[in-house]
Design brief:
The two termini are 34 Å apart. This protein has a 16-stranded mixed β-sheet that branches. A 3-stranded mixed β-sheet has the order 20-23-22, covered by helices on one side. Strands 1-2 form a two-stranded antiparallel sheet. It folds into 3 domains: 46 residues; 133 residues, Sandwich (Jelly Rolls), CATH 2.60.120; 73 residues, Phage tail protein beta-alpha-beta fold. The chain is α+β, with helices and mostly antiparallel strands. The chain has 6 helices and 23 strands. Strand 7 and strand 8 form a beta hairpin. The N terminus is likely disordered. Pfam families: FecR, FecR_C. InterPro entries: FecR (IPR006860), FecR_C (IPR032508), Ferrdict_sens_TM (IPR012373). GO terms for molecular function: sigma factor antagonist activity.
Length: 322
């Protein structure tokens, strides 16, 4: 593997990083290079934008032909990378995303965006609606909405800022419930693998209806959330909006169990965490971290209040908490 310096980046490795095929060591090299200077960061996003454009055009040959090396000058910088956004077509929130090929569904071209573990992105839909997609989330939507409605399919967590159009309702379809709106801001957390469902309304109005029984529905008011517990929907007021700051690159938790926090770390850092220490299970915890701080930093901070040790198996991407 080529050794990278801050002045000399191997573009082939960089594009492997974009594709999600880079090794763990190559990922670390890219991140170190990217954080070394403002010029490196700008070059990273320039190449990322080019990569995304070629993906949209389906130009895989051009993507794989990028084998040149390029040189960047050095200057100091340490900043959060996720806040750079472009609303033209597809916005990268920090690293890479995968596009599945266009499909025909009900005679309409559909686009699916899947976000890997440890990443998040911001996109703008054809109607002007802005969507933030969390890690391990997929969103399917038409390249052009119909004249009667706007429907998208979500598996995972997303924050929606819906462009208002009273003639065309906006519907988010999940595996258990559909969320219908006209124009509003809300968060939907519905990972099919967990079987959980939660919708939080920040502004406007939404109707939540069961996929299996549309008669089972309710209208949610601002500053309230609806959660699925024991097969029934429960509405409660929102006491803390910090958990929804994931789109800003923050991991926030309030009175959460250690295991719940570790599950968040698994999602945001793309690894498995095995907890063998039973003592840490007895308490609940409150705090926040920047995703860019990394999992090691977060665990070391938790160690200040909780007695535990941990070690990493980098080859298998596992952390053992003991």
């Amino acid at each position: 593997m080529a050794i990278l310096s801050v002045l000399n980046m191997n573009k082939d490795i960089l594009y492997k990083f974009f594709e999600g095929t880079a090794s763990l060591e190559e990922e670390k090299d890219v991140k170190r290079w990217m954080e070394a200077s403002a010029e490196n960061q700008r070059a990273f996003f320039k190449e990322r934008k080019l990569f995304d454009s070629m993906l949209l055009l389906g130009d895989e040959n051009r993507i794989r032909s990028g084998k040149k090396r390029f040189s960047i000058n050095l200057s100091s910088l340490r900043t959060e990378l996720i806040k750079i956004a472009a609303v033209v077509a597809i916005t990268l929130g920090g690293s890479f995303l995968y596009f599945q090929s266009l499909q025909e569904k009900e005679q309409m071209a559909m686009q699916t965006i899947s976000v890997p573990a440890g990443q998040r992105i911001n996109i703008t839909l054809p109607d002007g609606t802005t969507v933030w997609l969390n890690a391990r989330t997929s969103l399917t939507y038409p390249t052009k909405f119909s004249k009667k409605n706007r429907q998208v399919v979500l598996d995972g967590e997303a924050y929606f800022d819906v462009a208002r159009d009273e003639k065309k309702p906006f519907t988010v379809q999940t595996d258990k419930y559909n969320v219908e709106v006209l124009g509003t801001k809300f968060d939907v957390d519905a990972y099919s693998e967990t079987g959980e469902f939660e919708t939080t309304l920040m502004k406007g109005s939404v109707r939540v209806a069961s996929v299996d029984d549309p008669e089972q529905n309710l209208v949610l008011k601002p500053d309230n959330k609806v959660s699925l517990r024991d097969g029934k929907l429960h509405v409660t007021p929102v006491e803390d909006y910090n958990p929804y700051r994931w789109k800003e690159g923050l991991i926030c938790f309030r009175n959460e169990s250690f295991m719940s926090i570790m599950k968040d770390f698994e999602k945001y850092y793309g690894l498995a965490i095995h907890v063998k220490n039973k003592e840490v299970m007895k308490y609940v915890y409150t705090g926040k971290f920047r995703q860019t701080d990394g999992v090691d930093y977060a665990l070391r901070v938790l160690q200040k209040d909780i007695k535990f040790t941990y070690h990493r198996d980098d080859e298998n991407q596992i952390i053992y908490v003991e």
